[in-house]
Amino acid sequence: MLELLQAIVLGVVQGLTEFLPVSSSGHLLLGQYFLGLDQDRFGLSFDVALHMGTLVAVVSYFWRDLLRMAFAFFRSFAHRDLTNDADQRMAYLIIAATVPAALIGFIFEPFFEGEIVRSPWVVVVNFVLVGTLFIVGEVVGTRTRRASKLKFGEAVGIGFAQAAALVPGVSRSGATITLGLFLGLRREEAARFSFLMSVPIIAGAGGLKVGEVISGGMDAAQTFLFIVGFVTSAAVGYVTIRFLLNYLTNHSLRAFAFYRFGVAGVVAVLLLLGVGGF
Q1: How many domains does the chain have?
Q2: What is the pLDDT, as a whole number, of residue 127?
């Protein structure tokens, strides 16, 4: 029963924090540090279940956009028109934005998994830093552009912002949406682009591990936890995407910035008092 409850909690946390600009890796690390809520104890299969769940969530929500971009990409082989064909342009923009995160993640994976990066103090600093960038981006951003009007250099820049989220506390959606604001995108457009560019990254990260899970096999208990984690993260992820896109249509990122500041303050106090520990 305890493992079932933990599987549900981890699925909820993954579904919420994968898409909200609050950092899934940061929350998981803090959960491990203070609560002993360790995703790793469920094994590789459960990790894959959570990532596949969030992948299903974003694909389920954006399946029409993804199909249009896929057809447009293949259509571009016969007739490329990145100026007038918005779907073709978006497909190539997503590809351009995916490359930096994929390369950096592959090359520097040992660094991002090291003890220096995976520190609660790193999470605290990044919660405050990125929260501050939320507020600055809201002030300086014009919020007038559509994502399809991005330049390819700007898309690559958003890709580097996505790569920065490999550091706990940054947040993939937070970093990419914020840079989108600095580039003049409307909030909902920045969020939509962020979610679309997450598809190849989540699929790649999860796909690399699927083979290991299949070759290793799963017993009945692992299979049950896999299903629970998958369904929970998928359902919560879908609702979270829907909520955030609707929310950002009429609201700023300030609420998430204040949330980050609050969590960072509480965590800093606990760390100074010597509470928690790996």
Answers
A1: 1
A2: 97
